[in-house]
Amino acid sequence: MADLSLYRNIGIFAHVDAGKTTTTERILKLTGKIHKLGEVHEGESTTDFMEQEAERGITIQSAAVSCFWNKHRFNVIDTPGHVDFTVEVYRSLKVLDGGIGVFCGSGGVEPQSETNWRYANESEVARIIFVNKLDRMGADFLRVTDQVQKVLGAKPLIMVLPIGREDEFVGVVDLLSRKAYIWDETGQPENYEITDIPADMVEDAEMYREQLIETAVEMDDDLMMAYMEGEEPSPEDLKRCIRKGTRDLAFFPTYCGSAFKNKGMQLLLDAVVDYLPTPTEVDPQDLTDEEGNPTGEKAIVSVEEPLRALAFKIMDDRFGALTFVRIYSGVLNKGDTILNSFTGKTERVGRMVEMQADDRNEIDTAQAGDIIAIVGMKNVQTGHTLCDPKHPCTLEAMVFPEPVISIAVSPKDKGGSEKMGVAIGKMVAEDPSFRVETDEDSGETILKGMGELHLDIKVDILKRTYGVELVVGEPQVAYRETITQEIEDSYTHKKQSGGSGQFGKIDYRIKPGEQNTGFTFTSSVVGGNVPKEFFPAIEKGFKGMMGEGPLAKFPVLDVEIELYDGGFHAVDSSAVAFEIAARGAFRQSMPKAGPQLLEPIMKVDVFTPEDHVGDVIGDLNRRRGMIAGQEAGLTGVRIKADVPLSEMFGYIGSLRTMTSGRGQFSMEFAHYAACPSSVAEKVMAESKERHEKK
Q1: 179 backbone dihedrals φ, ψ, rounded to 5°
Q2: Does the global pTM surpass 0.70?
Q3: Which of 300, 299, 351, 342 lies closest to 323 in space, CA to CA?
Q4: Helix (H, G, I), strand (E, B) or coil at 114
Q5: What is the dihedral of CA 435, 287, 275, 26, to 10 degrees?
Q6: How far is CA 115 from CA 87, 151, 247, 278, in A?
Q7: CB neighbours of 283 closer than 8 A, spacing ≥ 6?
Q8: Are 578 and 541 in contact (CB under 8 A)?
Q9: How far apart are the C-alpha atoms of 325 and 95, rounded to whole Å?
Q10: Is 330 within 8 Å of 305 (Cβ atoms)?
C-alpha cells in the first residue's frame, strides 16, 4: 500500500484575480504534468476547462489534479475566488488537509480572500501563504504580510525575502538556508542559480531569520531554552517546529514570487512537503447519525479501517457523470459494491479515474488519503457518504447556504423543455447552492442561486453546454415574512354532517421568535383538554403553513406557537381534524399579529481607487446601504457596507462606470431585516399582480 506520509491533499484559494489558477498551472509544469504552459489571460489553463471559465478568466468549479514532487504525491484542488461560488471553496476545504493562500503582491488582502480565509479557519485547515505577482507595479511583499496580520488576524512567518522590486524582481532569499535563488529572464522555472545573499540584503536577512527562529522555537520548550542560552537549533529541528506551528495554526509560513514568470515556485512546493500535514496528521472527520449529530466516533485515516468516503463534488463532462470522492479510510477497488448511507442504496463501482484537470487515468484501486473520481454513479449527490455495506456510517454532512435570488426561465421553443429539464437536473446535482422549483400556478421554472453572477453563469451553461435557449425573467429577491406582535387566539374546526364528524378546538399564543429560529412549537396544555397524541398533528398543521405568509405569500420566519388549551370530542376528534384546525388558526391569526416583510441584506465589500470614494459611498447610500467602515490601502480604499439585495442588481456595471473600470466588489448574504414600508408596499403589489395573472 502507498505510504500516506508521502501524500499531501492541498487546495489553492484566494481572491478572484490573485493568480490561483496560474499558480496551479506552474505547480503542474514543475511536477511534469503539463509540457506547454496555458495562461488564464489567454484562456488556456489546464484546470479552467469550462468555456465559461476560459472566457471570464475566473474559476467556477474546483478542479482536482494529482501530481508528484520529490517522491511526494500532491492532490491539488484549485478553487474559485468569486464570492458567488463560495460554496465550491467551502466544500473543497471540507476534504483538504492543507492549503496555499495566494495573495496579490499589489492588491494584498482583498475582500474574497477574507471570506475564504475565514472558511479555512472554521475548517481548521493548515495553510502556507504565497504572495504572488511580485513583478507587478506597486507590489510590496512586506506590506501584504502586514495586511495579513491586521485584516486576517493571522501570523505570517516570513520564510523568504524578495530580491528586487516590481519589474526588477529576480528571485528570493531563503532565510533558513541563507541562500539566494536568482532566476534568469527566460521565464523557464528551471533556469535559476543558488548564490550567496546580495550584500545589501545581508542585514535584513539576518534580522528576519532571527524573528523566524524565535517564532519557530516557541513550539518546543527544550529548543527554546537552548536558543536563549545561545545555541542555534539545527535546520531539521527548525523544520519540525515550523511544521508543528503550521499544523496548530499558530502561524503560516509565508513565501513570495511570480507564478506567471516562474520565479519562486520550487521553494513553495518544498514548503508543501515540509510543512503541510499528511492525511494521518489531520484531526479525523466526525461520524454522525442520520440527523447529523456526532456519534463520538471518528473516521480514522487508515487502510485497515472499513471504507469511508465523502462525495464532495459531482461533475458532468464529456466522459459522463463524475463523482469526486475523498477516501478517508479503507480501500476501494474497481467492481466493489458500496453503500450510500444517505439513500440506503448500494451501487457497484464500475470505473475509477485519477484526474489531471480534464484528462484522466484509469485506476483499479484507491485507498485512504486519495482523492479520485468515480464514473457513472447514479444516485449520489454532493455531501453523501459512501461506505462499506457491512459497516454503515455517515460522515459529517456539508451545510449549504440558502439561495437569496431567483429568476423565472422558460425554453424559447417547445422542444427545449425536456432538454432543459435533463440539463437542470444534472446542474442541481453538481451545485448544491443552485436550486430549482416549478411554480405550481404558472408552470414557470424558477432557478434560485447565490447571486446575479451565479445565475448568469448557470443560464450561460444551459445555453452553451446543453444547447438550451432560454427566455429569462427579471431577477426576484427571496423576501421573507415574520410577525411583530404576540396574540392569543382560539380556533375550532367542526364538521358534523352525517356519518363520523370532525372536531378540534385549540387555544394558542403566536409570538415573534428569536432571529434565525425558524419555527418553534411548544405545548403547555394541562388536564388533558387536548390529548397528547394530537400535538404532533397540530404542530404539523402550523408548520405546513409557514411556506406562505399573509402579506405576499413569501415563506415565514421566526414564529413561536404555544398551545395552552383547547377541546376535543371523544368520537369526532382525530389527528386530521386537529391538523386542519391548526391550518385554519394560522390563516386566522397571522394577519392580526403585525405581519412584516423581511428582505435579504448583503455584506458588501467594495474596493475603489481613492479618487472615487465619495462617488461610491454616495451610490451605496442611495441604494439604502449602511456603511460599516472604510480602510485605506496603498492602491485604493475598501468600503464595507450592508446593502439590501434588491438594490444591488446591476451593481458591477455602475461600479465600473464610477471607477473607470478599476473598482471591484464582493458580496455575501448577511441576514434578513425589516423592509421599509414604501418597499414593502411595492413588493406586495407586485406579488398580488403575479398571483392574479396566474
Answers
A1: -125, 155
A2: no
A3: 351
A4: helix
A5: -30
A6: 11, 11, 21, 25
A7: 124, 298
A8: yes
A9: 9
A10: yes
Bridge partners (DSSP) of residue 480 are 598
Instruction: Name residues whose C-beta falls within 8 Å of residue 192's C-beta, 6 or more positions apart in sequence.
Output: 171, 181, 182, 183, 184, 263, 266
Could you tell me the three cell numbers for 79? Answer: 478553487
Start-to-end C-alpha separation, the chain? 63
Task: Determine the length of the chain.
Answer: 694
Residue 194: how many other CB atoms lie within 10 Å: 11
Residue 638: alpha-carbon gap to chain centroid: 22
User: DSSP alpha helices (H): ranges in 465-534?
Assistant: none
CB proximity list for 146: less than 8 A, separation 6 or greater? none
- By three-state DSSP, how is residue 96 classified? coil
- Residue 680 is placed in which grid cell? 414593502
- Model confidence pLDDT, tens digit, residues 610-664: 889 999 999 999 999 999 988 886 667 889 999 998 898 888 788 888 887 777 7
Query: Which amino acid, residue 676?
Result: P
DSSP 579: H
Q: Pick from 591, 519, 605: which is nearest to 561 by CA?
A: 519
pLDDT tens digits for range 333-368: 888 889 888 888 888 888 888 866 446 778 888 888
Q: Do 582 and 507 touch, CB atoms closer than 8 A?
A: no
For residue 250, the 8-state DSSP code is S
d(CA 616, CA 639): 9
* DSSP symbol at 269: H
Distances (CA, A) of 137 to 43, 133, 256: 23, 9, 15
Distance CA 55, CA 45 (A): 11
Q: Cα–Cα distance between 691 and 130 in angstroms, integer?
A: 54
Q: What angle do CA 453, 458, 462 make, to 5 degrees?
A: 145
| SS3 label, residue 259 | coil
**C-alpha cell recorded at residue 644:** 439590501
Decide: helix, strand or coil at residue 675: coil
Which residue, among 359, 356, 388, has the nearest Cα to 371 in the 3D structure? 356
Pick the closest to residue 477 from 555, 369, 362, 564 (CA basis). Answer: 555
pLDDT digits (tens, 9 = 90+) for 2-60: 677 888 888 887 665 656 567 777 777 676 644 333 343 333 343 433 344 333 333 33
Q: How far is CA 628 from the centre of its chain?
A: 24
